[in-house]
Amino acid sequence: MQLVRIDSGSEVPPYEQVRLQLATQITQGVLPVGAKLPTVRSLASSLGVAANTVARAYRELDEAGLVETRGRAGTFVGSAGDESRARIRHAAQEFARVAHALGLSPDEALGVVEAAVRGQRPPQTC
Known about the structure:
Blueprint: H1 14-27, H2 40-47, H3 51-63, E1 67-69, E2 75-77, H4 80-101, H5 106-118
Antiparallel strand pairs: 1-2
C-alpha cells in the first residue's frame, strides 16, 4: 500500500496533497499515534517530487500538532491526531448552538458550513 499519491493533473499543489492525505490518515487512525513516517528524502523520492515539497507538508503537519519531528530520529504521528475528531465535534456542537440561537434554519447553517469548508463566501441569507 502506498502511503500517499500525487495527482499531477490536480490543481492542488503537491505539498498540500501530501499534507491532506497524511492528515486524513492520522485523524482517521489509519496512521496510529507513534507511527514513524518516511524520511523527507525517502517519501519525496518515491513520489517523484522535490524534498522541499514533503518538508513543507511535514512542517505544516508539525505546526498543526499532527506529527512530531524528533531531529535525527525522524517524524512520528503525534497524539493530537486522536484529539482532532473530538475538537471538530465540539466546534460543530458550538456552531449548531450559535446558529440555533441566531434563528438560522438547518439548511442555512449547513450552507454556511459548506461555504466555509470550500473556502467560499457564505450564502447571503444570513
